[in-house]
Write a structure and sequence with these properties.
Blueprint: H1 12-15, H2 27-49, H3 64-72, E1 79-83, H4 121-126, H5 129-138, H6 147-157, E2 161-166, H7 172-176, E3 183-185, E4 188-195, E5 203-205, H8 206-214, E6 228-232, H9 241-250, E7 256-260, E8 282-286, H10 295-299, E9 316-320, H11 323-334, H12 337-374
Parallel strand pairs: 1-2, 1-7, 2-3, 7-8, 8-9
Antiparallel strand pairs: 4-5, 4-6
């Protein structure tokens, strides 16, 4: 993980062991879904270890050109994109761990016991101020989607995007035109918020939360006065139920997996690469190689990781570049480059125009308030 649009790494046990008081009505459904996915994983693992199932070579060449030819062949109709922090860095969102410039290196002003505390649910309930101060700096709406985001929108428009699974919380996929059904926001989203009280759980929209944050108010529930938190997954909280239920249906049907901008180190998200069929091609677009099998597990016969270089490699392709450059290169090979560049230009112009109108309206409202406040009431005439 490298970007503030993506929450910091969470341990798997933290994701499946919520605090007792936070158990929801969906907990049994979530546990059942998680249990089912674990069984699916074991079945796939034993199948791979025992050499069961087919492993047909679909790509004629393990290069970006080979992937492009496969997409253009018309045989590729259910693409799944798995994306992480790296797809948003060119939007200007700071990363977490870069020395001196990363998010964690600049949290001293919040007097945290340790940097990750800002995303700890226990700490948040007692000290919400640091999180909301940070949220004001990074709030959705201040950044524009990248070339990579719009490449996924093109996949949708061409009818070949099955789903986008994202670790990011910046909502830029939505801004680019991916809608609720197109997205699995594995680590949650700022798009909605809920009261943290188990007995209340009232929902609030993005505009309500934005008004509170930019007014420097700690968001409190209108109904019960408890804290209201954006629906992003903190340490100590479960991933959304929809993550577990959707992956069971989506990944067996996937005929091309495109992984972009993620180190594939955060579980259970990283394990999704092993849930496609053994024949499904997998393309990684990233600044470094990721998702490769652990050598020790490989010796024990446990496969599933990505294999770019060995003599047995037959489906995995690594495009080592920025996500934007990789998407442009693939779009060029597909004959879509001019269309993608025009889409990015039009959408950025539209967003800039919309932002300009909103700022103008806000200035007029502020001026009107200031004017009404400065007008003193006329004195009453003495009788």
């Amino acid at each position: 993980m490298s970007d503030a649009s993506e929450l910091p790494e969470r341990k798997e046990e933290e994701e499946v062991s919520p605090e007792p008081e936070e158990q929801s009505d969906d907990s049994s459904e979530e546990e059942e879904a998680a249990g089912d996915t674990e069984m699916d994983f074991l079945r796939n693992l034993f199948s791979s270890t025992l050499g069961l199932g087919s492993a047909d070579k679909v790509l004629d060449d393990l290069t970006l050109d080979g992937v492009a030819r496969y997409i253009n062949s018309g045989k590729c109709k259910n693409i799944i994109c798995m994306v992480g922090a790296g797809i948003s860095t060119s939007a200007g969102i700071p990363d977490f761990r870069s020395p001196g410039t990363g998010l964690y290196a600049n949290l001293q002003k919040y007097n945290l016991p340790y940097p990750e505390a800002i995303f700890q649910i226990d700490y948040f309930k007692k000290h919400p101020e640091p999180f909301f101060a940070l949220a004001k700096e990074l709030y959705p709406g201040q950044f524009k989607p990248t070339i990579c985001h719009y490449f996924m929108k093109m996949l949708k428009d061409k009818g070949i995007l099955k789903r986008c699974y994202t670790q990011n919380i910046d909502t830029l996929e939505r801004v680019a035109g991916l809608e609720g059904e197109d997205l699995i926001e594995a680590h949650g989203t700022f798009y909605t918020s809920h009261c943290v009280s188990f007995c209340c759980r009232k929902e609030y929209n993005l505009d309500w939360m934005k008004e509170k944050i930019f007014s420097d108010d700690i968001p409190k529930c209108d109904k019960c006065s408890s804290l209201v938190k954006p629906d992003i997954v903190f340490f100590g909280e479960n991933l959304p139920v929809r993550f577990f239920t959707s992956m069971k249906m989506d990944f067996p049907r996937c005929d091309l997996l495109i992984v972009m901008g993620t180190s594939l180190q955060v579980q259970p998200f990283a394990s999704l690469v092993s849930r496609v069929s053994k024949s499904c091609p997998r393309l990684l677009i990233n600044m470094e190689r990721a998702g490769q099998a652990d050598p020790l597990l490989g010796l024990l016969g446990f496969g599933g990781g990505m294999d770019f270089d060995s003599d047995k490699a037959y489906r995995d392709v690594a495009q080592i570049s920025t996500c934007d450059d990789g998407c442009l290169a693939l779009a060029d090979l597909l004959g879509w480059k001019a269309e993608l560049e025009e889409l990015v230009k039009q959408e950025h112009t539209r967003i800039d125009s919309q932002d300009k109108k909103e700022r103008s309206c806000e200035k007029k409202e502020a001026a009107a308030k200031a004017s009404s406040a400065s007008v003193a009431p006329e004195p009453k005439e003495e009788e």
